[in-house]
Every structure is written in structure tokens, then in C-alpha cells.
Recover the amino acids of this structure.
């Protein structure tokens, strides 16, 4: 939020509400209680084993199942848009402002483009931005957060102040300012800008987790063995953070979907790229509601919501897996009843 | 007091970073924004505006960067933000911004307070009645609510209540046929125009309050002193309010202090969608018109508001919760 995200006070680690920007609120709400290392990292869990554990967790938790299914669906559409929609999304070749029909499932825009094709082809840029920002922001946060915790001393102090400053500068206005100087940010630029301004919240979480690990025996053992710092960070510390990293990836991806769509909606994206946010931009500029084309606004918006929900559901599911206290009491009770029968 | 001093130092540092960003961004970007504007409005902007641009972006002034930087800092310190280039050509940026602030404070400020009170109340109940109907409906709804772009909810509400049902206005903050003044007709009209944007803001921000309050309530309800209160046979509402909620409300309170800072710049897209002439709407107008002096001043205003609120919320936390004083 504010949004979008960045609710923790500069000084304290406890996340709280309070950034009424688009997206930052959810980015914060996504991980309400796991900031202080709620996910206990066992020493030296092999990556494969924790992956298998994750797969089991996904099938056992309904939120996780739905989220994964949605994500797989969107990925398929993003990779093979041509299999689903047969029109060129940009071509202005049809009669204008048609109502939905068998030919044009969602009708056409007031430029004469097929709206269904636009929605389908618009999936790829959004998903690219989501995954790109998710990965890049999480990696930057990991490098900075873990380095700060591991190196300690002056390094920790400097990196910490850097993180905190970025954390409290209101992100969405900052993105608007940067966007206005860029004059139409394409997908790659969008990824870079959102990721490089939005990593600080994750960095704080990862630093806290790394700090809590610092005095564990398995790290001392590695040091005594004479391992290099890079080895210790990559092989000993980072694998214990797998669940936290996955959660951070999901939060950042969600936040990227909402922020990039918002920026595109106000015309700061590249208007020639077909994506859900730019569809909304053109629809709003052509008064879609007043000219009887409500689907032009409703459908891209619903797509954003559904993709965002996929990331959010997965995130909540991981939070529940990490922090059983948050699981809905009802389903726990139901499970007991079932077992009793 | 050391705590307050340290937080104030951090406040100043962040303020300096924001100022420097404002100064450095246009100079780092490809192409010179000042030249671009002068080219775009060839002959269309006043010599005074050209001078402002030159000063602001260091074109044709033959000053080196360091001198420009200190001049910029000096200007900001004395609240000289120059004149608007294109939004209201020639008008002082300070004047334009001051005209927009009351609208945003009224709309977003009141809605923020409402969202906090309602959200905290529902959160207390939801945590207290954990496992009840309220609690099982709420979280899934808010998973969905938090992923809906604000502006899109605004658009859908416009479609339903404005375009289809014709029951509520959705353009600007009052009807142009009325002259602003302190009379019932005008105030009623302003209130009517505020309903849709305020409702949009309310339903998009209330979820975080509910969720945070609920989760802290659940943690607090597991504490020994709550069990003790139950064992003493105290009535439910006393345990809920005096024992659990009173202790669980801290994150929400500090969050509230912070969210007051986001009032100024927090509803940019909602103001845009409803053409509500507040600070956020003005910012986007400045962006669309490449009115850089206005844009920079607004960014600074929004940032300073947030920084102040964070400073206040840190101090409030330190006063309310002694455990945090050592940290940070």
C-alpha cells in the first residue's frame, strides 16, 4: 500500500495496517504474523525434501490448491495465447463497439479490436511482470537482508538504514514520479522499477530471520570447518529460509500485478503493449461505461483480481502452514468431527 | 529521549533522501525533461516559466550540479516551489497545492477514521467470536478484497450507482452549477458527491484493520491473564474489551497513526477515477501535463506527510508499549 506496503514503522518489526495505497495493504496483510521468524528453520534441510513437503502442503490446503490451479491456468494462457484466441489483439479490423456474440465473445472495442483476444494476449505481460518482480525483488532483498545479518557491524548498520529509508518513502507516488520521467515504461523497465523500489519490506523480514539463525550450532560448525562466507550464506543459511522466500516471492508478485496495472491504468505504461492495465487505460479514455461497453472495464479488472487472488491465496495458505494458530477454527473442528466418525 | 532523538535523526535522513531523489531523478533519466517541455510548448510558455524550468533542471544556467543542488535545497527550505507550467500556467505551485489539500483531507481523512473505527470493531468481534459465522465469512472475503485494485472498485461502483441507476453523482466534488459557500445546498451537494469515492476507499481499506485486529485478538486471547479473567468468571464483554482488545489494539493504533500520514497521498487513483480535485488528482494532472514543478512539490508534500506520521507513530508506540523503547 502503501501502498503499498510498507506498514511496519521504520523502527519496529511488527507489521501493521496503514498504507492505503493500492497493493501495499495486501502486500503487508499477506504475511501478518510470520515476520519474526514464525517458520522455524531446521538446520540443513535438503532442498528436494522441503520441495516435496511443500507439494504435500499444497494438496492438503484448499486455499493452496485453488491458488496453484489458477496460477497454472494463467501460465498456460500466457505461454500459448494463440491456442485460445485466434485474433490479433491489436488489429483494428472489426466493426466498432460490437456487443458480445459468437464471433466476438466479449465484443469489440471502440477501435474495432477483438476484446477477447486482448484479454487473452494481455495475460503474458502481466504474468511476466509478476514473476519478474517477484524473483528480482526477492533476490535483491535476500542479498541485502542476509548480507546485513551475516556481516554485522557497520555493514549491518548501513544496509539497515538504506532499507529503512526505502521502506518509508511512499512507493506509489514515487513510482508515478519515475514513470512520468520514463515516458511509457515497457515490461522490462516496469519490472526493474517496481522491483528496485519494492524490495525493502522483504529484506527486513529476511534479515530478522537470518539474525535469529546466527548463533545456531550448524552455522558455528560451518565456521569452525573454515567455510567461506559465501558458502555459508548460500548453502547453510538460504535453504533454511525456503518458506519465507516463497512467501516473499508471492507477496512481491501480487504487489507487482496491482502496481503495474495501476501505473498502466493512469497511462504510465507503454500504451502499445496489450495488457490488462492498458486495456483499462484505453477503456477509461474512451468512456467505455457511457458508450455501452462495460465489459471493456469489467473483464480486465476481473482478470487482475483473479490473478491477484491466486497469489494471495497461496500466500495465506503458506502463512497458515507456518502459523497454525491462524487456521480457521471451523475447519479444524470439522476435521476432528470427521475423524471421530 | 534518546529514542526520540534517534527517530528524529532518521526522519531528517529520509527527508534528505526524498529531496535528493526529487533533484536527481529528472537528471538521471534519458533525455532532459526541461528541454522536452520547452520543445513541446514552443513559444507557448511564458519567459518566467522558462526561467523556472532552467533553474529547476539546470538547463542553460551554466551552473554545475553541486551549485544547482544547493540552490534547490535552499529553495525548498524557504518553500519556494516556483510556478506551474501547464496545469494552471503561471499560478504559484504553493497556491494550487493549498487549494487541493482541504478536499483530500475532508474526503480521505474522514474515511480513514471511519475505516479504522469500523474495522477495529469488526476485528475485535471477529477475533472474540472465533470460529463463529462472522469469523468464517470474513477472512475469505478479505483475501479477495485486498487484491482488488482500488480504482477498479471505484469504476464498478460508478457503473452501478452512477451510469446504470443514476442515483449518485460521480464527477468532481460538487455540482458546477452551484457557487461554493457555507450553505446547506452546497454542503449537501459536496456530501453527496463524496459518497461514492468515500465508500470505495472504505471497503478497500477496512480489511487490513479487521485482519490485523482479529489476528492480534486471537494471539492475546491465548494469554494467561485472559484465562485468569475467565476463571474469575468475569462477564464476556469485559474480557473481550478490557482484557483482550485493550492489549491487542496496539498494532492497530500505531497503524492508524501511520495511516493518517497516507491520507494526503493515499487515494491518488480514487481521486482520479472520480475526478475529485484533491492532491492525488492534482498529482496525476501534473504528470499528464508534464508539469514538473507541481509534480515535484506534490511528491515532497506526500512524502513529508508520511514521514511525520511515521515519526509520531513511533513515538506513540514508545509511550504506549515500553518494551519497544530499547529497540530500533
Amino acid at each position: 500500500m502503501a501502498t503499498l506496503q510498507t506498514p511496519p514503522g521504520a523502527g519496529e518489526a511488527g507489521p501493521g495496517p496503514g498504507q492505503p495505497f493500492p497493493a501495499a495493504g495486501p502486500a503487508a496483510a499477506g504475511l501478518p504474523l510470520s515476520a519474526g521468524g514464525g517458520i522455524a528453520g531446521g538446520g540443513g534441510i535438503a532442498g528436494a525434501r522441503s520441495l516435496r513437503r511443500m507439494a504435500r502442503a499444497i494438496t492438503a490446503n484448499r486455499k493452496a490448491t485453488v491458488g496453484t490451479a489458477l496460477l497454472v491456468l494463467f501460465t498456460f494462457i500466457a505461454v500459448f495465447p494463440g491456442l485460445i484466441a485466434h485474433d490479433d489483439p491489436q488489429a483494428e479490423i472489426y466493426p466498432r463497439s460490437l456487443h458480445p456474440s459468437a464471433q466476438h465473445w466479449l465484443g469489440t472495442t471502440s477501435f474495432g479490436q477483438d476484446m477477447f483476444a486482448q484479454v487473452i494476449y494481455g495475460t503474458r505481460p502481466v504474468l511476466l511482470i509478476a514473476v519478474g518482480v517477484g524473483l528480482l525483488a526477492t533476490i535483491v532483498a535476500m542479498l541485502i537482508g542476509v548480507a546485513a545479518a551475516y556481516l554485522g557491524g557497520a555493514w549491518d548498520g548501513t544496509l539497515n538504514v538504506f532499507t529503512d529509508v526505502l521502506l518509508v518513502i511512499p512507493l506509489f507516488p514515487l513510482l508515478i514520479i519515475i514513470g512520468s520521467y520514463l515516458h511509457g515504461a515497457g515490461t522490462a523497465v516496469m519490472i526493474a522499477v517496481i522491483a528496485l523500489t519494492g524490495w525493502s519490506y522483504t529484506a527486513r523480514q529476511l534479515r530478522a530471520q537470518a539474525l535469529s539463525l546466527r548463533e545456531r550450532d550448524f552455522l558455528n560448525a560451518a565456521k569452525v570447518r573454515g567455510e567461506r562466507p559465501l558458502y555459508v550464506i548460500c548453502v547453510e543459511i538460504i535453504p533454511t529460509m525456503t518458506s519465507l522466500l516463497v512467501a516473499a516471492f508471492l507477496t512481491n508478485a501480487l504487489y507487482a500485478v496491482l502496481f503495474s496495472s495501476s501505473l498502466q491504468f493512469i497511462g504510465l505504461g507503454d500504451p502499445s503493449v496489450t495488457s490488462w492495465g492498458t486495456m483499462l487505460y484505453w477503456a477509461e479514455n474512451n468512456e467505455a461505461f457511457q458508450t455501452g461497453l462495460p465489459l471493456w472495464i469489467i473483464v480486465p479488472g476481473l482478470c487482475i483480481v483473479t490473478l491477484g487472488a491466486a497469489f494471495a491465496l497461496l500466500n495465506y495458505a503458506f502463512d497458515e502452514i507456518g502459523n497454525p494458530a491462524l487456521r480457521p477454527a471451523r475447519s479444524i473442528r470439522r476435521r476432528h468431527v470427521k475423524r471421530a466418525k | 529521549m534518546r529514542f526520540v532523538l534517534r527517530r528524529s535523526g532518521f526522519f531528517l535522513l529520509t527527508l534528505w533522501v526524498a529531496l535528493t531523489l526529487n533533484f536527481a531523478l529528472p537528471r538521471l533519466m534519458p533525455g532532459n525533461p526541461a528541454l522536452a517541455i520547452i520543445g513541446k510548448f514552443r513559444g507557448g510558455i511564458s519567459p518566467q516559466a522558462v526561467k523556472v524550468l532552467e533553474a529547476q533542471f539546470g538547463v542553460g544556467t551554466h551552473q554545475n550540479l553541486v551549485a544547482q543542488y544547493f540552490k534547490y535545497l535552499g529553495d525548498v527550505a524557504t518553500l519556494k516551489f516556483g510556478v506551474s507550467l501547464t496545469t494552471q500556467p503561471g499560478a504559484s505551485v504553493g497556491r494550487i497545492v493549498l487549494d487541493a489539500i482541504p478536499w483530500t483531507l475532508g474526503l480521505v481523512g474522514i474515511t480513514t477514521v471511519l475505516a479504522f473505527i469500523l474495522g477495529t470493531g469488526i476485528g475485535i468481534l471477529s477475533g472474540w467470536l472465533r470460529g463463529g459465522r462472522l469469523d468464517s465469512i470474513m477472512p475469505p472475503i478479505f483475501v479477495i478484497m485486498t487484491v482488488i485494485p482500488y480504482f477498479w472498485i471505484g469504476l464498478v461502483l460508478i457503473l452501478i450507482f452512477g451510469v446504470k441507476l443514476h442515483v449518485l453523482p460521480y464527477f468532481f466534488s460538487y455540482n458546477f452549477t452551484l457557487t461554493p459557500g457555507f450553505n446547506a445546498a452546497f454542503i449537501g451537494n459536496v456530501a453527496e458527491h463524496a459518497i461514492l469515492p468515500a465508500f470505495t476507499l472504505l471497503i478497500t481499506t477496512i480489511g487490513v484493520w479487521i485482519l490485523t485486529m482479529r489476528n492480534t485478538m486471537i494471539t492475546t486471547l491465548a494469554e494467561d491473564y485472559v484465562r485468569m479473567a475467565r476463571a474469575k468468571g468475569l462477564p464476556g464483554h469485559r474480557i473481550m474489551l478490557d482484557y483482550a482488545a485493550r492489549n491487542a489494539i496496539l498494532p492497530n493504533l500505531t497503524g492508524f497513526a501511520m495511516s493518517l500520514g497516507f491520507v494526503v497521498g493515499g487515494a491518488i487513483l480514487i481521486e482520479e477515477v472520480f475526478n475529485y480535485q484533491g492532491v492525488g488528482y492534482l498529482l496525476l494532472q501534473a504528470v499528464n501535463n508534464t508539469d514538473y514543478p507541481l509534480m515535484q512539490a506534490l511528491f515532497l508534500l506526500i512524502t513529508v506527510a508520511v514521514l511525520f506520521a511515521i515519526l509520531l507513530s513511533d513515538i506513540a508506540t514508545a509511550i504506549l508499549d515500553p518494551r519497544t523503547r530499547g529497540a530500533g
